[in-house]
Amino acid sequence: MGFVFPKIYPILDVSVFPAVGRGEFLDRLGRSLADAGVRLMEYRNKIGTDAEVLSDARILRVAMPLAKLVMDDRVDVALAAAFDGVHVDAGDLPPAEARKLLGAAALIGTSASTQAQLMKSLARGTDYIAFGPVFPTTTKQTSVPPIGVEGVARFRATAGAKPVLVAAAGITLDTAPAILRAGADVVAVSAAIFRSQDPAVEFSRWMATLG
Question: Which residues contact residue 173 at a Cβ distance below 8 angstroms, ignoring those fewer than 6 apart?
Fold first, then answer.
């Protein structure tokens, strides 16, 4: 795969959407993020109707034509909205089936919260493995205790050098450098960017710090 992962992986969660003006919000947000240089972003909506999720995805696709957009869970929406990939976990289509549907060039990711899950994920042929939670998070429900920076180093040691490891959950700009030094290739960020006053400006601040 020729795509080089950036160090920052924004995850846009439906929890930050406004009560009204959803379409305008997404169009404006997507365009501002594209102008700020976002090259990779995930859209996550586990509660919306099929029509809502597809509509949101299509708005983002038009607003961010050059970015790699990854759909959480929904391979069908990724296909219909011309997204570049999908993030699949337990209960979703297996990564191999997702790749058959989306094509060889698609970005396929999965998650691991334990060392045992990481070992299974390594054999599944995904482009990246998201792991964590590194710290407590408010944007995704999980019963798994945070692994901390020390856990990041353990995951890197178990995974070896090859797979792209994306550290996720509760990461801030203050903690991100230590997480990257501990062995993560990428940091996934949701609340720290999208609950800021101006997500595009906040993303640019992260880029200036992490590169």
Answer: 192, 205, 206, 209
C-alpha–C-alpha distance, residues 33 and 186, integer Å: 18
Check pLDDT > 80 for residue 1: no
Which pLDDT tens digit goes with each residue over 43-52? Answer: 999 999 999 9
The hierarchical CATH code for the domain 8-210 is: 3.20.20.70
Ranges of each domain in the chain: 8-210
Beta carbons within 10 angstroms of residue 50's beta carbon: 11
The pLDDT value recorded for residue 139 is 65
Cβ neighbours of 93 (radius 10 Å) = 18
CA atoms within 13 A on the CB side of 9: 28
DSSP 24-58: HHHHHHHHHHHHHT--EEEEE-SSS-HHHHHHHHH
Task: Encode pLDDT of 14-27 as tens digits.
Answer: 999 999 999 999 99
